[in-house]
Amino acid sequence: MSIHRSRESPYTAGEFGATPQTPMGKTNVSRVLAEPEAELALTATARIFGLTRAKVTLIVEVALLLMLKMAEANPELRKRMAAGGGALPPLPIADYYDLMATNLDVRQSAMDDYKATYGGMLDLVNRAAARRAGVTDGQARDVIAAVLPALGRMLNRPS
Fold first, then answer.
1. I need a surface site. Which of 30, 68, 100, 141 has the fewest CB within 10 A?
2. pTM
3. What is the mean pLDDT of each run of 10 residues along the chain (159 residues)?
4. Residue 7: inside a domain, yes or no?
5. Which domain holds residue 106?
6. How far apart are CA 13 and CA 84, in angstroms?
7. Does residue 53 lie within any of the structural domains?
8. How many domains does the chain fold into?
């Protein structure tokens, strides 16, 4: 089953935090995470990593809010976030997560892309999200790495 919306994204890279003039805030993070593509990414990620959907959502909320706050003072992080947070293959998001669930190479590729894109820039984010959700730093990092490409694609669609 594939989820595909015909309408354009109501969000922009700036709203996601690509510029410090457009802070996103908790309300907008929650609104973005309620979008169908984000819902699918959160649910699939929870299933892939054996976590509850609530834990995955909390990890991503904490991570995005911290990333946005950090991006206000860090132009390099802002640039990397605006680039989409990771690359998804040209598949519908549902198909990508089905592939990630069944193919360890695809899952490892997402983790490698996250590490290559952000390096150690988000270690603080991983720790904070892990602490809030009651998971390990590694689990939080893996969840964030799995969800960011879908959110990046969704938020960086032409409007």
1. 30
2. 0.79
3. 36 40 61 90 96 96 92 88 66 90 92 89 94 96 92 68
4. no
5. 13-155
6. 8
7. yes
8. 1
**Which of 60, 22, 19, 55 shows the shortest CA–CA distance to 38?**
60
Q: Is 132 exposed, middle or buried (0-12, 13-18, 19+ CB in 10 A)?
A: middle
5 part of a folded domain? no
CB-based burial label for 22 (10 Å; 0-12, 13-18, 19+): middle
Would 1 be classed as within a structural domain?
no
| Residue 141 structure tokens | 């990092």
What is the pLDDT, as a whole number, of residue 86? 53
Residue 90, both tokens: 């040209």
Cα–Cα distance between 83 and 94 in angstroms, integer?
21
Asked whether the beta carbons of 149 and 110 are under 8 A apart, the reply is yes
Round to whole Å and give the CA distance between 149 and 95.
Answer: 13
